[in-house]
Amino acid sequence: HAFSLLLCVARKIPQADANVRSKHWDKKTFEGVELYNKTLGVIGMGRIGSELSRRAISFGMRVVAYDPYLSPTRARSLQVELVDELDDLLTNADFISLHTPLTAETRHILDAARLRKTKRGVRIINCARGGLVEEAVLAQALRDRRVAGAALDVFEIEPLPADSPLRGAPNIVLTPHLGASTAEAQESVGIEIAQSIRAVLLEGTIRNAVNMPNLDAKTLAIIGPHLRFAEKLGKFLSQIAPKRAESLNINYSGKVNEVDTTAITRAALKGFLQIAGGSEINEVNAPAFAETLGLRVSESRLSAPGDYTDMLEVSAVGEGRTVSVGGAFFGATPRIVSINNRPVEARPQGVVLVLENTDRPGMVGRIGTLLGEHGVNIATMSLSRNQAGGTALTVLNLDTAPSEELLREIHASEDIHSAQVIEL
Fold first, then answer.
1. Distance from C-alpha of 57 to C-alpha of 217, rounded to nearest angstrom
2. 191 falls within a domain
3. Is 228 a known active-site residue?
């Protein structure tokens, strides 16, 4: 559907059709543009963005992609040019197509400021999520002819309100969220549903559930506690790892090695990808989403349990560095027990502040005072140093998230080398 709309805005097909139906024949009014040698900017290179790019390349288009989570290796395999900054895409693209989830970071990713940075005469397509484009601003840009054309299949409010400024904007194609609305897609969905129901009734097997792993009851009872914990560890890691991670490994040690850990690995992967993919990521589609990003996922095992009966360590490699977070159970209570191979102890919940600082007397007091002055209470604190007078890792569970002002003060503090806020 996205590529169909791209063709429509390039050649003004819907407007020309309406013109002829209204008994006119205004050929000059509907002069379009070719796709050949034009630049397509794709924001978000998941499955749909990748498929759109493949089709655009076959039409002779140059494809520039912006996706903070796409690995350079994957970009090369897709034959697209990966840019680090969105502005680089905006200033070069003749067409822009959005294919990113709707998150706090991507809401109104095309707002007034960013539309002003686009090439005059750009054409915009959105078949991903309503809210990615600021609709009133787009309507005005169409009226001002800064944007030459647009095609939208999704909207902030659906059905589209009667008074939406988009309805009166020129050179725009509007469709009622038709995305996967084809006879073939509907037939495939129906067959898949029937097969899943058959498996439950005849075999007792649950397949393709979005809210539970594909496990029998006995195995689920054994690994159940690890599923939620693994997801937390993955989410924690995603907030300290390089955005363009190339590989993710889940290392198991202890009793957990006695069972099939596939579901645990998927839970960790789900947590790791949730910031990149939004709330749509689940245990079923996480592996496919990882593949679109060029993220390799693996498992490893240690037969010796070490200091803990059961331990999970999730690590990511990317941009020339490796980061990791490890977790273990203290009885039935999960705890984060290592960050980048440094021993710590923190609860995997709420807001966690991770500081790297110089190991010297008075640092704990300075950190506590700084947080207290801003009304932020410390629930728990853990310290880990590499050597006396070296660097220390300070991990704090906080009752509330620190403000931007507080974070600026922390970053400016002498002897604090880095500060990362983790939200679980």
1. 48
2. no
3. no
